[in-house]
Write a structure and sequence with these properties.
Blueprint lengths: L1 H4 L5 H20 L10 E10 L2 E10 L5 E7 L4 H12 L14
Antiparallel strand pairs: 1-2, 2-3
């Protein structure tokens, strides 16, 4: 914001905005109709700091429409966390896709 609009904002302002927006959009995201998803998805993970601790955000999105189809926050970056996120996307399909690609 400072570089583009010359507006100074604090990290607390960003945190407050993020919390307010997430509370508003979470119910909408949980019930979104994923009828027009492609069968090509990609996923990644990153870490963020929450209340002074590093946590990992795993997310997946439709590669064609660029819609985020799943996101989960975990304390560990492990196989279970990745599989849990992947499974949450598979549940949104009416049938399991014929091809599943993973990056090892």
């Amino acid at each position: 914001m400072r570089e583009v609009h010359d507006i100074k904002i604090s990290h607390q302002t960003v945190a407050n905005y993020t919390e307010a927006v997430s509370n508003l959009i979470e119910p909408w995201l949980d019930h979104y109709q994923y009828d027009h998803m492609s069968k090509d998805h990609c996923g990644d993970e990153t870490y963020v700091k929450v209340k002074g601790k590093h946590v990992y955000v795993f997310f997946m999105c439709d590669s064609v429409s660029i819609i985020i189809t799943s996101f989960n926050i975990f304390m560990k970056r492990d196989t279970f966390s990745a599989i849990q996120t992947f499974y949450s996307v598979i549940r949104k399909f009416k049938a399991v896709p014929d091809i599943v690609r993973i990056d090892l």
